[in-house]
Design brief:
Layout (H helix, E strand, L loop, with lengths): L24 H4 L4 E2 L5 E3 L2 H13 L6 E3 L5 E2 L3 H9 L5 H13 L4 H9 L10 H11 L2 H7 L1 H11 L4 H10 L9 E5 L8 E6 L2 E6 L7 H24 L3 H11 L6 H17 L4 H9 L5 H6 L7 H15 L5
Parallel strand pairs: 2-5, 5-7
Antiparallel strand pairs: 1-2, 3-4, 6-7
Helix pairs in contact: 4-6, 9-12, 10-12, 10-15
Length: 327
């Protein structure tokens, strides 16, 4: 099975007067690389602008290098360079951004979805104006040029990684050949090992953060969460009767989902990702410690020949029986 490419109908245009396109590195920023299976891997200027803004505003998600006396994070060379360069950036755009965040206290994935073109996040009024302003007032064009080679190297790291796990996951979901089309957007300004997905048109765009090696599990999980939310999210919210109790227990252990249906989708997508990437037993155990328990039993449900929406509730019943007993 071959996952065909998402052919974007969107023309990526400059944001503001400081971002007119020129020959050389600036144009190369939009050039794609392609996996052997035909997956497009690229960078995106709006994703870069958003994460530059978030870093300037205090987005510090990253592995911790040192806890005491003052916490230090491993941001990686490219992200560290951008953060340092923006320390002296005009504060006016940041003030406008903070007002936007106050008016729309949404999760990061919603902001990422908006810049990717996800219509579900189209109500983030004002974000485009903020990004236009930071593009005009901050040295983002030069920062893209400075980090171009690092971004290109990160894209190439995904080339041998992306095809097989997505193909296995598509087979486990019994999707038709070439469905759904997927495009990867690589950013070095996000947290290592984090991925965010959005539906755009008939396909999916997945933003993948830094990582050495790249996390195929994270990629498949972000993609699967989008696919499964569309197929079973409402069903789980309405009909998973044991879900509320399981969700509350999981939240106490660190799960971050904000509804029963969303948590059910997270369990399914994590189980699928672990299965599709051939994860070791330790990965299932680690997920259980974070509140995502029963994934080993749930992963076996994907062997069912029926569509996922036909067995999802039965599969989640195995999670209920597999969750740890409360002491």
């Amino acid at each position: 099975m071959r996952l065909r490419v998402l052919v974007s109908s969107v023309l990526f245009v400059a944001l503001g007067p400081g971002s007119a396109r020129a020959a050389g590195t600036d144009a190369d920023w939009f050039a794609s690389v392609w996996s052997p299976g035909g997956i497009e891997i690229r960078s995106d200027d709006r994703v870069f602008s958003l994460f530059a803004l978030l870093n300037r505003a205090g987005y510090d998600e990253a592995p911790v290098l040192r806890e005491h006396p003052i916490r230090a994070h491993d941001f990686g060379p490219a992200r560290s360079a951008v953060r340092e360069a923006l320390r002296s950036a005009s504060p006016a755009a940041l003030v406008q951004a903070e007002a936007l965040f106050d008016a729309h206290p949404r999760r990061l994935r919603d902001y990422v979805g908006h810049v990717l073109g996800d219509t579900a996040s189209s109500d983030l009024t004002g974000l485009d104006d903020v990004l236009t302003r930071v593009e005009a007032e901050w040295p983002l064009r030069s920062l893209r040029e400075q980090t171009f080679e690092a971004h290109r190297a990160a894209q190439r790291q995904w080339l041998p990684v992306v095809d097989a796990p997505l193909q296995r996951a598509a087979r486990l979901l019994s999707l038709p050949e070439g469905k759904p089309p997927v495009q990867l957007v690589v950013t070095l300004l996000g947290a290592k090992g984090e991925c965010w997905g959005a539906k755009v048109g008939a396909g999916w765009r997945i933003v993948v953060g830094a990582g050495e090696p790249p996390s195929a599990e994270c990629l498949v999980r972000a993609w699967a969460a989008q696919v499964l939310a569309e197929r079973v999210g409402r069903q789980l919210e309405a009909r998973w009767t044991a879900g509320a109790a399981v969700w509350r227990e999981a939240r106490a252990q660190g799960a971050r989902e904000e509804s029963v249906g969303e948590f059910g989708v997270a369990l399914l997508s994590r189980a699928l990702a672990l299965s599709a990437t051939g994860a070791p037993e330790a990965a299932y155990v680690a997920a259980g410690r974070e509140g995502y328990f029963g994934l080993k039993a749930l992963a076996r449900s994907f062997e069912d020949s029926r569509p996922v929406d036909a067995w999802a509730l039965e599969g989640l019943a195995r999670v209920v029986s597999a969750r740890p007993l409360r002491k």
